[in-house]
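Subject: complex prediction, re-run

Hi both,

The earlier run crashed halfway through, so I resubmitted it with identical inputs.
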Amino acid sequence: MVAIEDIRARARTLLESGEVRAVLGYQRGSAGTLAEPAFLTEPQQAASLVWDPTCIHNLALYLVNEKKRQRTQRSNDKRPLAVVAKGCDSRALVVLLQENHIDRSEVVILGVSCEGGGVIDPRKLTRALAGRAATTVAMDGADAIRVGTASGETTLPASELLADRCLECARAYPELYDTLYGDKAEGRSYSPRFAALNTVAEKPLDERRAYWNAHFERCIRCYACRAVCPMCYCDECVVDSTEFVVTPNTSADEKANRIRWIQRSPDASESAMYHLVRAMHLAGRCIDCAECERVCPVNIPVRLLNNVLEREALEAFEYVPGTDPGLPSLISSFRDGDPNDFVR
Amino acid sequence: MEAILQKDRLGQWVAQLSTRARVFAPAFVDDVWGYGPVETGAEVPLDHGNTTRPPKNFVFPQREVLYRFRVQDRHAPQITPTVPEPEPAVVFGVRPCDGRAMVRNDKVFTCGVVDPYYQARRDKVVFVGLACSAPPSPNCFCQSVGGSPHSEDGLDVLMTELEGRYHVKTLTARGLELLDAARSLFDDAGAADAGEVERAHAAARAYPQRTLASQEQVVDGLKRNFDSPKWAELARACIGCGACTYLCPSCHCFDINDEITGTSPLAGERVRTWDNCQFPDFTMHSSGHNPRDDTGSRLRQRVAHKLLYFVENHGIQQCTGCGRCITHCPVGIDIVRVTHEVAEV
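This time it finished cleanly. Structure:
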């Protein structure tokens, strides 16, 4: 059992001693059922921390964002950030460490095991409650979730409410941590790996094309999928050019000939380009936290695009991202045994 | 005029209207509520909460071609105007908050200088509203921003669901035309119906909603706290996506780009697309300076535009309390809480 009191106590100690700049965890929000990210800087705030299956966000994102923030604010505070990390979140931290985006000294990891459970898919919850709002969501053992609503409490099978990636997750515990909360529950998953992907990947090509076209047609290009991804840390993204500086000497030709890889117009073709660029940049890096899919306001199954490349990495290179910060990353390494039949 | 439509005749009314206009209604596709065309003979259930995507697309689509251009042999460019000529459309199931948002969009695009692209689409679309019998979202707060579950602003017709039937009230001449197109389907509304409508509306108003402080308090509070450190604090979790404003029924900022379709001769389209104050390049100056270079100042822009600047410019709040930006924010940023905390009300 994860005892939230233990996490709060640790957060309080870390903040009291001043050894961390802030503690990133989860607290109750005002916007709905889901917990919201919490940035705690005072010891007494530690009491607001919560832990339940609505603690969905991958807080590794904020290590990246806070790094940018510190840079723009020219902050000299070198103390680390403490972060509450589930299994998938900790794997994101491992990738960031592998890529030297962060240093191990910059983070104190409060690892929390999902203990064979996981986090909910808010859309599944809405469906299960036929639109009623949930007030509380808690694991009831590893196989059931207790949901409270204004009209009482119901218990639903975990397999009906958990996010797809949790159903497929066989390692629902932190890979890397400074302190661990809850037990490591090994080798447990409700669905086989890539189960969701297979339902789409097995369709014939023309059906798949129609499937993705319909989804991309709907994309509003809010870029929530990019913005929420801890691995999307480029200073400048192809979709918004913030570095393109126009001076009085910039000619009309230069302005006109600036390459725009992806137009702002949200049609299926431009949006497909955006989504494929995003997915390709995550090859061998995506740890399947599936935040991209959760935050999509129009429910495009973007996780599946990442899964395709994840499967490629696994099948071609036996590579699973986020397991060991000491290993080189997939893209930056070569082994004699790697398949090379595409080199001619 | 007011009339009664038995529920089982809604399909016939829609079928009748389909002969003269494209008919749209809320549709639940891939777990997302949006507006979709109604196929002939299909059901129009009208039991939706509120759509994820607001009906603003009908008048202000995410992409609008302003004109086509073509440059040949160093001559002056040839310009072909592309003001849209849409088919007439009837949109069913518009919630009152979204109707009120249309009034705000009208202010921006048609008061003073008339935007011909917006006007061309606006002229051809008729909005049939549906009064809310209960708040469709836990984040509804229409009554705090001057609206109500049965507000008529911006709508052409307002339907109120009663036992087994709809009370249908026409609000504009265009709304009346929709009824006239199928008069035989409607019964006269009697005094008993009027009483029932009043009771239904009162019951809807009595449902608890989220509450936002009064317009005066908010305006005053936001003005006083323009430089509040709270903006940065409350935006710390903001991931910088554009879901809040792209889903907003009254956000209207746009960007203009040239999209090249051919190079010899040079040809292309000048295109207007939605823009988003939450994006890093929104206020990017050509010098490289960005006056709103962090999430805190961008959150301030969004909230203050809705609840302060729009009031200063047009005398009314821009926000109509639909709650979409709260519900769909990936990290739970809540315009009501943000406003209260910053404005200290």
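Chain B touches chain A through 49 residues (CB under 8 Å).

- K.
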